[in-house]
Amino acid sequence: MIQQYAESNLINNLSGVLDGKSQRILISGLKGAQDSFVLAGLHNKNPFTNLFIANDKEEAAYFQNSLDNLLPNQSIQFFPDSFKRPMFFEELNRTNILQRTEVINKIALSSIDERIIVTYPEALFEKVVSPDVLGKQKIILEKGETLDIDTIIEVMVSYGFKRVDFVYEPGQFSIRGGIVDIFSYGIEWPYRIELFDDEVENIRAFNPTTQLSIRNIQKVSIIPNVNSEFSQDEKVSLLKILPEDSLVWIKDYDFFLDQVQKCFETAKEFSSQYMEDNEELKQALDQRSFIYPNEITNDLENLNQILFKKGDVKDSFSYEQTLGASPQPNFNKNFKLLIEDLNNNTSKGYTNYLFTENVKQIERFYNIFEDLNANVQFIPINKGLHSGFIDHELKLACYTDHQIFQRFHKYSLRKGFTKEQALNLKMLRELRPGDYITHIDHGIGKYSGLEKININGHVQESLRIFYKNKDESNNLFR
Predict the structure, then answer these.
(1) How confident is the model over 142-195, as pLDDT tens digits?
(2) CB 35 within 8 A of CB 307
(3) How deeply is 262 buried, as exposed, middle or buried, from its count of CB atoms within 10 A (0-12, 13-18, 19+)?
(4) 38, 78, 257, 440: which one has the fewest Cβ atoms less than 10 Å from its Cβ?
(5) What is the dotted CATH code of the domain comprising 2-129+239-322?
(6) What is the pTM (predicted TM-score) of this model?
């Protein structure tokens, strides 16, 4: 299907227009998840950097999930705002800050421009640290080098990191004997640095919940808090650091500019009322790390753009095309209507596709059609799609199971780790040999200590528990 879009008249026309710079294109009439296929088809034919600006965070998340399913071998990066909720500046979200830094870090380090970034107005409203500045502020740690514990503590504190018992979010570090755990900004997993005297013996990324190793690493880069450790002069718009041939997709241009203006007014009002005891938030607001609405329009003028809605745009478009697509019909769980519709599509030469994330739903469709003695032609696709559509030009009818069964379809975003998980690890560390402990499967035993074991090439700390019959069991803490 993606190849059909890549070879379509629309994509061929777009490819020709996008040979130039600062082109503005209007594509209207898209329905459902059709925009995901258009972007995927164009990206397959012209693999340059794409920035997709949805109307809000929820729409961006659904689009990112659909695109991630359509292009499993392509890294689809989600660029969120820094707060718990968009346009609510009361509380920062460290997982979101990590993701923002991760995007900037990949742009700075990667020489490959074939990336897709999905975002929304409130996220673009915030400036990001310039990749050049970020590169100069990194701390590089390498296996085999000498590392002084006192020095690393001093450096971590100066970079705004907080010392804790167990790391669970970016901006934290812990030291237990010869083990130094650091949760840097700009990477999904924290680092565990093991020392032999003052030499770095081993470095690995690990899961802070299970303590399982993810992979061994030769060299790591520690990145400070991009919100509080950099000044306004060191921050720029995300649009300024994109490659020159990047393509910006905007769902609703007027709405996008209105939201940026609203963000600016809300931030200005809130900056006079923020909590004095929240130093990190205070620094972020004091630095005025936000973009003025007119800066957004100026930055966009230097990049290629595809708009889905004309609105009040006064400038002419380099290319315009209206697609006569239709949204997925509403069947209200009436499978006779569904069968009739699918058969009607087939009679007109359309190909029916049913998208579902659950393979059992495919079996359910076959069983329903068999029970109703329906000879229906369709192609099942075990992929999630946020909304169905009918493309009349390519003769594709793409339906989703959650719309057919009228079920809520939830998007998925990275959630990070929680303080409660870290507290469980702290309780585990406080155990002493001889303490009684209850295992959910094996019952009551005596705690003997921690032991490192190798499981399929992954080093894991496990509990050693002795039971009454002297049986010894290495039970992994999960």
Answers:
(1) 899 988 888 888 888 888 888 988 888 888 899 988 889 998 877 778 999 999
(2) no
(3) middle
(4) 440
(5) 3.40.50.300
(6) 0.79
